[in-house]
Amino acid sequence: MNATREPLQRVQATGGKSRETSDSTGMRRSRAASAAAVRGGLILAAILVMGWLLILPLAVVIGEALKLGVRAYLDAIRSPETVAAMKLTALVVAVTLPVNVLFGLAAGWAIGKFRFPGRSVLVTLLDLPFAVSPVVAGMLFVFLYGRTGLFGPWLFDHNLKVIFAVPGVVLATLFVTLPFVAREVIPLMESAGNEEEEAARVLGAGFWPIFFRVTLPNVKWALLYGSLLAAARAVGEFGAVSVVSGHIRGETNTLPLHIEILYNEYQFQPAFAVASLLSLFAVISLALHVLLEKKRLTGTAKRGLA
Amino acid sequence: MRIEACGITKSFGSFLALSGISLTVDPGELVALLGPSGSGKTSLLRIIAGLENPDSGHVLFDGEDATRRDVRERQVGFVFQHYALFRRMTVFENVAFGLKVKPRKERLSRDEIRARVKELLRLVQLDWLEDRYPSELSGGQRQRVALARALAVEPRVLLLDEPFGSLDTRVRTELRRWLRRLHDEIELTSVFVTHDQEEALEVADRVVLLNQGRVEQAGAPEDLFERPASAFVMDFLGNVTIFRGRAEDGRAHFGPLAIEYPEHAGRPSVPVAGYVRAHRFDLARGEGQKSGFWAVVKHVSPSGALVRIDLSDGELPSTRVELSRERFEALNPRIGDRLFVMPSEMRVFPGHEDGTLTERPPET
Amino acid sequence: MTRSQGTPKSGFPAAARGASKAARPRVLPGFEAALGLTLAITGVLVLLPLSSLLVFAGRTGVPKLFATLHDERVLASLRLTLSTSLLAAVLASVSGLLVSWVLTRYEFPGRRLLDALVDLPFALPTSVAGIALTTLYAPSGLLGKRLAGLGVEVAYTPLGIVAALVFIGFPFAVRTIQPVLADLEPEVEESARSLGATPLQTFFRVLLPEILPALLTGFAMAFARGLGEYGSVVFIAGNVPMKTEIAPLLIMTKLEQYDYAGAAALATVLLLLSFALLFLINRLQGWAERLGRRGA
Questions:
Q1: One domain, residues C102 and C132
Q2: Is there a single domain that holds both residue A188 and residue A229?
Q3: Is the ipTM of this complex over 0.95?
Q4: Searching chain A, which residue's CA lies closest to the CA of residue C18?
Q5: What pTM does this model have?
Q6: Any bridge partners for residue B65, and if so which?
Q7: What are chain B's partners, defined as 3 or more CB pairs within 8 angstroms?
Q8: What digits encode the pLDDT tens for the residues B150-186?
Q9: Residue B331 neighbours by CB distance under 10 Å
Q10: Under 8 Å between Cβ of A132 and A212
Q11: Considering the domain boundaries, does residue B361 fall inside one?
C-alpha cells in the first residue's frame, strides 16, 4: 500500500512536475539522479559549445579593440577613413532598406493575397539571392556593368561608373538583401487571409485605406523584423561588396571592407576597434530581434483568439 | 431594392459550383439560401456581393445590370461567416471604418460619424463595448459588431454568410430571433446563407433550397415543408423515414405497407420511394384500421415538447417517430415493446431500379 | 435576357473563357501594380544579373568553360570547398542538435540569453567574424597557443576554414531543429521510457526519426552557406593556392586578373551546387511538413 501511495504524495510535493507514477523508490532515485546528471552535463556541454563558438570570438573583438587603451580606441574610430566608411555604410543602408521594404510589401501583396499562374515560380525566384555565393553575386554585377560587361561600354561612353564606385556597392548589397523583408511578410499576409481586406472593400475602401489601415497593421512586426535582418546584412555584407568596390579608401570602402584593409596592413587594434562597432550593432540588432519576436508572438496569439 | 440573378454559372477549376441559377429577391424581403455544403450557396452570395465574378449570367439591382460593377460601388452590406472584423481596430473603429473611407465630398463630419456609430452600436446593443478589440469579444458580440459595421454605410441590401454558423446553440437561437426583429424594424432587402433548415424556416420570408449548384425549390417556408418539389427537398427539410418499394396498378407497395398512388395507374411496375416525416406517424399497441407494420422500440429520447422514438423491425428501415408529449404519456412505450407503426401521410417519389433515388443529398 | 453592347464583358467572346478569366477584375485592388513592381525589381536586381552569367558563358563557349575547370588549382579549390563545407556542416548539425535540445528541453538561468546569442553569426558581419576567429586560432592566439602545444594547427590550414564555417553554419542548424523539437511533446519520450526503452534507444528510435528531416534541412542549409562563404574564411584560410584556397576566393582572384571566363566557369559550378541544395532543402521541408501533419 505504502509503495503505491508514496508517489502520489511526491507528485503533490513537487507541484505535479514529477511524472513518474509507479516504480520502486530506489530505482526511481537512481534514475532521477542519473537524469539530473545527464541534464547538467548536456547544459554544460551546450554552454561550452556556445561559449567556444560564439562568445569567445566576440570577447576577442572587444579585448583586441581595447588592447591599447581607450584613447587608441577612440582615435581609431574617429579617423577620417573610418568616418568615411561609416558614412558610406549608412548611405548603403539608407538606399537598400526602402527598396527592400517596398519590394517586400509589393511582393507580399501580390503573392500573399492573390493566386496567379507562375506564382510558385516567383516564390522560388525570390529566394534565389540566398543561394548565390556573395562573391558570385558581386561577379554578376561586374559582368553587367564592368568595363567589359554587357552595359560596360555604354556606361563608359556616358562617363558613368558603377563598378568600383558607390552604385556598384549599393546594387550588390541590394541583391544579397532583397529577400529578407519579403520572406517575413509574404507568409504572414497569406496566412491572415483576405477576409478583412474584402470586408474593407465591401465597405467602400480603396487600395490605400485597405493597405494602410487593415493590411499593414497586421504585418508590421514582421515588416520591422525583416527590415532589421536586411539592415544587419546591408551593414555587414562583405563578399559581394568586396568584388565591386575596388577598395578605394574614403570613397568605396564600407566598414567591413575598411576592417579588411586595416587588418591586412597589420593595424590590428584599429581593425578591431572598427570591428567592435559592428559587433555592437550586431548585438543591438539581436536584442531588437528578441523584442520584435515577442511582439510578433503576442500578435499571433491575439490573432489566434480573434 | 430588388435583386435578380439570371443564369449564374460559376466553376472553380473542374468543380461546377453554380450551374445556371436564377432567383429574385423582392424589396424588403428576407431570403434564406439553404443547402448542404458544396451546394453553391456561399458562391452565389459572394457573386451577388461582387466578391466573386460569375463565369456567365448577370446580377441585377433594381433592374440595372450590376454584374461588372465593383464591390465598392454595389452598396451592399456583407457579414462574413467568421465576421472578418479588423483585429487591430476597436469596435468603434470597426463600425466607423466604412464612414471614414468615403470620398471627402460624401464623408460625414467627425461628430456625425461619432453619432452614427454610437446609434448603430445602440441598435446592436453593444454601445458599452466600443473600446474593446475584437479578440476581447464573445462570438455573439463579434457577430453583432459585424452587423453594425455592415449597416453603417447604409447599404441597399444586406448579405450574410452563415451568420450563426460559428455560434453555440443557445446564442444562435437568441440571435436568430433578434435578426428577424431587426429586419422587421429596418426592412432592408436581406439574403442569408445557411445549411440549417430550422434556421432558414424560422427566420426567412422565403427559402431558396440549393443542391449541387441548382435551385431545388424556392418558396415560402410552409410551401417547401408541406409541398416539397422533390425527394431531396423533403429529405433535407426534416426527419424522414424512406421506404423503398414498387408502384403497381395505382398503388405503391412497401413490404407490409400499401398506399394509393393514382398518378401511376395503368403504367408498368416501377421502383418508388415513400417518404414519411417523423411527426406523420402514429403508434398503437394493436393493429387498427390503417395500413402499418410492427416494429420494436429501440430508443426513446424525451427532450422538449416532442418525444423521439426510434423503432426497427429488421426488414424495413429504422423508423424515427415524433409523438406529442400527451400522446407519448398515454401510450407509455418502453424499449423492447412491439408497437404497430402507422404512417398518416406519405409522399411517393419515383426511384431507380437499383434502389437509389433520383437525387440523394450529399452526406454532410 | 438582353444585354447592351456597352457592357465590358461583351468584349470577351465565350470562346475565350481562359482569357476572360485572367482579365476579370479581381476583388482586391492593386494586384497588377504590386505584381508589376515585384517583377520589375526582381528582374533588374536578380534576373538581369543572373542572365549576365549565361550571356558570358555563351560568349566564352561551353567547351572553353569546361576547359578552364580542368585546371589543377580550380579542382583543388573545389575539393577544398566541398570537403571543408561538408565537415563543417556535420559539426554544425551535431552541435546544433545539442544546443537546440538543451534550449528547448531544459530551463536554466541564462537560457534566454543563450537563445538570443544563437543568431549572432547571422548578425555579425563576416569580416568581423573572420578577423576574430583568426586572432583566436593564430599560433599566438588564445586558443591557437594551446592547440599548438598539442601539435594542432588551425589558423592558415583547412581546419581553420572548417572552424569559420562551423561558426557560420551553426545558427542554420539550431534554427531548423529547434522548432521541431519544441513541437515534439516530452510525453513521447516519456512514454517510450515507460515502455522500457533506454535513453539511447529512445533517442535513436523515437526522437531521431522525428527530427531527421529538420536535421538534414539544417545540415543542407549550413552546407549551402559554407560553399559560398567568403568573408569569415578569407582571413583564417591563409589562401595558399592548391592548399587553402577556397573556390569563392579563387573566383575573386580570377576576377582581379580579368580572367572572366575562368571566374564564370567556377561560379557556374558553385551556382549549380547551390541550386541543387536549394532544391533538396525544398524537398526536405516538404517531407518535414508531411511528418508534422501526420503527427497532428
A1: yes
A2: yes
A3: no
A4: A117
A5: 0.82
A6: B60
A7: A, C
A8: 999 899 999 999 988 778 888 888 888 888 888 888 8
A9: 16
A10: no
A11: no
